[in-house]
Amino acid sequence: MQNDVYGYTSAGAVSQKNTVLRKTYGLLGLSFLPAAAGAFIAAQAGLNIYAVLGGRWMSFIAVMVFFYGMCFLIEKNRYSNVGVTLLMVFTFGMGVLISPMLQYALNIPSGAKIVGIAAAMTAAVFFTMSALARRPNVNMGALGNFLTVGFVVLIVAMVANMFLQIPALALTVSAGIVIFSSVMILYQTRLVIDGGEDSHISAALTIFISIYNIFSSLLNILLSLSGDE
To answer: Rounded CA gap, 202 and 83, in Å?
Structure first.
């Protein structure tokens, strides 16, 4: 018997869905605390994980192993308090990973303003997608197909950009990630509302990754457009 973190009553399916959604938002908010801590600690220590690993490909492999390894472990413990702990470790690590970009942004003219704009735009996207997810006419089939095709296209484009290093392609990839992640928030939230997702840990993980990707991609776009990158 797993250490269940839900504690549902017999209030019915609607109550259960509302419980999952409420706990998803609660855990999502909590997950940004270790993320902020990871970014702050890395900044204070002057830690750049990419410089430590050395080499673009070595860094890419290490990040992918951490990312997908932690996602796998969290999903394996998606109904357990262990899953919550692993999620906090994961978000701390993601904070460490984004720290170099934040350090760079905050050390250039108007960098703090750019970070603030990226954060505000990310929040606006999140709240808009969350509101749209509550509309009854959301076509989940179409969204699922879009996400499947979009994921494949983005992976191919990102790998191509690692070889080609074309600025315009990099910006296109960042814009694509923003669109893809925005739709993912809509899809995941609606999935919880419809009862298709019964783990608030899994839902919080997916939405956190989407918000993280939106913020980092918007920050990259804004830095590029500012001419300071």
So the answer is: 9
